[in-house]
Structure formats: structure tokens, C-alpha cells
Amino acid sequence: MRSVRHYLLTILIALLTLTSFLAAVQSYRQSVDRSEQLFDQDLQLLSAAVLANVGAKSPQGLESLAIQLWQRQELRFASALAPQHLITQTAGFSEQNFVGKRWRVYAHAQDDWWVVVAQPLQQRQSLADEMVIASIYPVLWSLPLQALLIWLVVSRALAPLKRFSAQLASKKANDLTPVKLPAVPEELQQVLNTTNQLLTRLHDAFEREKRFASDVAHELRNPLSTLQINLHNALSAWQQSGQQQGQHSMAQLQQGVERMSQLIEQIMLLNRTNPEVFQAQMQPLDWAELCREVIAEQYPQLEKKQQQIELLGEEQLTVRADPFALKLLMSNLLGNACKYTPAGGQLQLKLSRMPNMARLEVEDNGPGMAEQEFERAFDRFYRVGGDRHQSGTPGSGLGLAIVKELVKLHQGRIWLSHSQWPTGLKVTVELPL
């Protein structure tokens, strides 16, 4: 496609020339029409003067002029506006007052004839104004036409840029395919090439990241599984032999291996649930039913710690969500509450319907956290107190980070606050209905 600059310059100059020419033609025609009216009045004036010599009456159409014909001090002809006395005795142009108006007067003498013609100054001014308006009016009405034509031309010239912007805006987060446009102008071609190169580099970077995460998971899972099996066998053999020395160290080592295994799984989940790479399958889901399902799955852990849990609020609450993502969100929230709440503690889930939103509140009476820690709690690998968390429970600091990514995926909101009990934490999640 040709250059946008050349296209705009050529078309706009042509349009301005055409509209200016049309306006000039119209102005010329109106000026000619008005001039013809003046010439017609001159013809009428001439005919009046001729007819006056034969005693004819004054013709119609001379109401704006005052005409006198004198011969040897005798008034031979006077128009309707002319007085019966001589208007002026001075030859040539002058200005006189009569019949309550100011007149421009021309007097001419030849032999024994004296001709006086007068015209009101106000009429001359009006005539001048009409001539000016007749010249300007076509230019004025051509301006909206010029603006419309320019708008159409510019819109057409910028159409490729608009299509380019629309394609970029309609791309999903995981769509890094090159942008293709028909008939790309010179100015946009380089921008298009640079954008496509950037998209290609981003696609390659995401692919390397996914391959790296997959390779790391594969390479770490197998050795960790083997290490867990060997540790379990070693600890069993140790116990069967009746040796007590070193069992505490072996148990700590086993806990460390389990924690590392959980950390790898959490990192994989965090990478998988990133809104930029996760392909959500949104569908209507009953959030209350999902809460009951997650509680049933984690009930053995709750029973093991003798914790009490209750589900309050709406018995049925439908939201549009991805089944895997929403269940993972619930599992992490309930799992965190169970993990950090001491034995015999209390947990509460409450569902409520808000205007255009569904709200879930997960509360516990665990140790909680200070208010200044609420925002940082969503950071990756951040734990209050680090590895020396006051609950004494090991963790990776990724649970709430994963939950935040899942809430972002559903275009919802999440925040932390103090629970209803003297200690503890309340997590509030709102998702669109």
C-alpha cells in the first residue's frame, strides 16, 4: 500500500482545491446576479429619462432612486421619491438630505438639460453588504463539506492503524501469534514488523519458561520420590532394629523432603494458574456445593486436629468460574486455615450474595497476623516470621499467592482482615456473578 502521508497530502489538496473552486464559482454567480440587478436598474433609469421627454409616467422599480429632469428651470420628470424642488445645483457627486434621508447625488448638465440622480446612502451600504455576503457565503457553506470530506479521507487513511489496534486489543493473554493486516501502508509496516518480532520473542520466552518448569518438575520429582521411599525404608529398618538414636534426625530429614516436595508442587501450581498462560473454561458453578465438596475432602485433616468447621450463608450460589481453578482456590484457603489453626480450633466459611458479586469469607481462630502484614501476605514466598512462623507449621509462602492469581483470573477481589474471634484471620473473596 502507498504511503499514508502521500495519500493524505494528495487527496486533501485535491479536495481543498475542488471545494474552493466550487465556492468561488458560486460566489461569482451570486455576484453576477447582483450586478445584473444593478445594470437592470440603470436600464430602467435610462428608459425613464427617455420616456420623460414624451410625457410618459415613471416606470415601476425605481422606488429606491430619486430622479429629476430639468429643462430651462422646468421640471420635466421626477420619480416617486424625488422632491418637486431642485435637489442640487452643483454638478458632479455630492451628498444631500431630503425626505428624511441622506442621499448620494449625481448631477449632470448638458445644453439646457439638468439631470439629477440620487440614491440613499443606507441602500448603498446594504448593497455593499450584500455583495460581501454573496462572496463569503459560498466559502462558509463549503467549510462543513470540506470538514466532512477531510474526516472521511483521514478515517480511510487511518483504517489500517485502527484494524491493527483492534487486533491487538482483541488478543487474549496467551495469543502471541503475529498480527496480519491486508494492504499495510509504509508508515505502519515497520511498526507491524516490530510488534510481530516482539510477539515472537515473547512466545519463545513463554515456551522456554514452560519447558523449564516442566523439566525442573520432572527432574526434581523423581529424585525426591526416590529419597522419600529410601527415607521411609531406612526409618522403618531403624525402628525394627530397636535403635532409638538418630530417629529424631531422620524424622526431621523426612519432614524436609516432604516440605521440598510440597514446595515444588506449589511452584508448579503457581506457574499453571498464572492468568497469562492459564486457559480458563468459565461455566456456571454452585459455589456452595463446591465448598461442601472441599470440606468433605479435607475433613480427615480437620478431624485429625479435632477442629470444628461450619458453612453458613447461601445454600446455593451460582458463579461463572473455572471448575479446576475455583476448587484449587477453595482447597488452598481451607488448607491454610486448617494448617495454621491449632488443634481444637474453629473454622468458619460464609457465603453471601452481594450486588453483582458473590462473597466468601473464610475465618479461623489461629494466630492470625498483624494488619501491616495483610498486603505482603500475597507476595510469593513471603511468610510472617519467615521459617520461624509462630504457629510452628512449615510452609512455602505460596498458598495466598496462588489464591490471588486465581482471584485475578476470575476478575474478582480478595483482601485480609481480623476474624471475629480474639485471634485469627479472615480471608474475603468476591467473584462476579
Feature tags:
19% strand, Heat Shock Protein 90, 433 residues, Helix Hairpins, alpha+beta, Beta-Lactamase, 5-stranded antiparallel beta sheet, single chain
Helix-strand layout with pairing:
Elements: H1 4-52, E1 66-71, E2 74-78, E3 92-98, E4 101-110, E5 113-120, H2 121-157, H3 159-170, H4 186-240, H5 247-272, E6 283-286, H6 287-304, E7 308-313, E8 318-321, H7 323-340, E9 346-354, E10 357-364, H8 399-409, E11 413-418, E12 425-432
Parallel strand pairs: 7-9
Antiparallel strand pairs: 1-2, 1-5, 3-4, 4-5, 6-8, 9-10, 10-12, 11-12
Helix pairs in contact: 1-2, 4-5, 6-7, 7-8
Keywords: ATP-binding, Kinase, Membrane, Nucleotide-binding, Phosphoprotein, Transferase, Transmembrane, Transmembrane helix, Two-component regulatory system
GO molecular function, one term: kinase activity
Protein name: histidine kinase
Detailed description of the structure:
This protein has 433 residues and is of the alpha+beta class. It has 3 domains: 152 residues, Beta-Lactamase; 86 residues, Helix Hairpins; 153 residues, Heat Shock Protein 90. Helix content is 52%, strand content 19%. It has 8 helices and 12 strands. The strands form 3 sheets. Strands 2-1-5-4-3 form a 5-stranded antiparallel beta sheet. Strands 7-9-10-12-11 form a 5-stranded mixed beta sheet, with helices on one face. Strands 6-8 form a two-stranded antiparallel ribbon. α4 packs antiparallel against α5 and α6 runs parallel beside α7. The longest helix has 55 residues. The two termini are 47 Å apart. The model has no long low-confidence stretch (mean pLDDT 76).
